[in-house]
Amino acid sequence: MKKIIFVSVLLFMASVQKSYSMEFEGSMRGLCNLATAFQSDTFYPKTHFKENEIYLSVTPAYYSVEVFCVQKSTQGSYGYTVTGDDADVFGANLAFDYCINRDWMIFTSLTVMKSDGNITNTPSTGYKEFTAGNMTTLYQNIGFGYEFLNSDKWSFPMYLGFAYRKFFVDMTGTNDNPYDTEYRADIDSTDCVYGFFIGFSVARRFVILESNFKLVFFMTWDGFDDEIEFDITVTDSSDPLIIGRKSKSESCATPHSEFFLSGPLPGLKFMWESENRISLSISINGFISNSFNWYNEYFIEGLKYKYASITVSYRL
């Protein structure tokens, strides 16, 4: 009789103390990867500075996400694969660049991204967690650039500044494990973090059929003072003891650093420069990432997506 009571007490304590933050860690980490990739794809790297020139650029973009995140199993932890179902992403980047002279510039940009759809997290155990809802991300940076090389053909600038990121999350999560308690949880966040932005680019100008083009390779990093925090609240369950349970998930640190560093994330843009004030550019990141699996696995933790975007820049 005493053994039965003791076991019952242990089961009760396990039910009361269980945190559900780990259940949705893969989904939240995948959303952070998505936000980082979106920032890189819509980033407009200014090159070939000219004195007193001002540029305004806008980059609308659309994503269709197939895979958000892939984590391999390690000793002491399960791996998982996070996939998307009708996971659509819309957003845009608005940038302002002012070239003080041929060496220095000031820049600022604002990126807004909204994702909507269903996310399935499949751990290596085989039992799935499902997440549905939407997330809006705001990202802003402001800083300066310095150009180490500025010739008619080549340009090599570096960028440094402050960064700000804010998440608005409104999602619902459920589990599909016959050996665990069934539950439904609300996942919310209005958290924000502050940090730095650093990047560099290498650009090469060339002429095709008397038209000016530019190929720009760039790499960016964002370092934040903390991780984005997600609040998880159990709203319904087959076990009434866990209804109302609250826990937190912090899932935005990349495996490359413990300083909550996003990156390094390389990018490649192909630009057309007209004789008047307008120029157009497209990002080639997505084509590269979908063609070479090593790119996805190392730089963006297996994130795989189809996308369309274009940058329109106007010289004032």
Provide structural commentary:
This protein is α+β, with helices and mostly antiparallel strands and 316 residues long. It has one domain (2-315): Lipocalin (Beta Barrel), CATH 2.40.128. Helices cover 15% and strands 59% of the residues. It has helices spanning 2-17, 25-42, 285-291, 293-299; strands spanning 53-71, 80-99, 104-123, 128-150, 154-176, 183-189, 192-208, 211-224, 229-237, 246-250, 261-273, 278-283, 304-309, 311-315. Strands 1-2-3-4-5-7-8-11-12-14 form a 10-stranded antiparallel β-barrel. Helix 3 crosses helix 4. The chain starts with a helix and ends with a strand.
Would you list the SSEs in sequence order as H and E?
A: HHEEEEEEEEEEEEHHEE
Our count of domains comes out at 1
Quantity of strands, as a count = 14
Q: What name does the CATH topology carry?
A: Lipocalin
**What oligomeric state is this?**
single chain
**Count of helices?**
4
Poorly predicted sequence stretches spanning 5 or more consecutive residues: 2-19, 253-260
